[in-house]
Design goal:
mainly alpha; Hypothetical Protein Yqey, Chain: A, domain1; 2 domains; globular
Length: 150
């Protein structure tokens, strides 16, 4: 079953179970997917949907940090619930060791010599790790690896 079909089935299940918060989060996701499909005039495959979910998760995490800084735990809790719902559709996350191995492999494959070659390395890593690793952590790891080299 495709990811989009699974999301639609989960929406129907949430409707039947009268889980309004879950239903709202799933509808928000479907709206974001539909918006991207309309904007780009394409049918998104699973990888495209994962990219949409990844972007939504990043937005939610930023919102949680801002709400907690402002002392609005009620809003932060709502965002945390949405993060839980969205995370269920993400592929299995990579371990730290797997990420480090992918970074070493990408540095070798791109022929990077120092920090100035970070764009090359990230260009190799992004399609392989998107949705399976936090790209800000990957970026920091690449920067540290290249700094140690150069």
């Amino acid at each position: 079953m495709s990811l989009k079909a699974r999301i639609n089935e989960d929406m129907k299940a949430a409707m039947r179970a009268r889980e309004s918060a879950r239903l709202s989060a799933i509808r928000l996701l479907l709206a974001a997917i539909k918006q991207r499909e309309v904007d780009e005039r394409v049918q998104l495959d699973d990888a495209g949907i994962v990219a949409v979910i990844d972007k939504m998760l990043k937005q939610r995490r930023d919102s949680i940090a801002q709400y907690e800084a402002a002392g609005r735990t009620d809003l932060a809790d709502a965002e945390k619930f949405e993060v839980q719902v969205l995370t269920a559709y993400m592929p299995q996350a990579l371990s730290q060791a797997e990420i480090e191995a992918a970074v070493r492999e990408a540095v070798a494959a791109s022929g990077a010599k120092g920090p100035q070659d970070m764009g090359k390395v990230m260009g190799v890593l992004k399609p392989r790790l998107a949705g399976r690793a936090d790209m800000s952590q990957v970026s920091a790891l690449v920067k540290a690896t290249l700094a140690a080299q150069g």
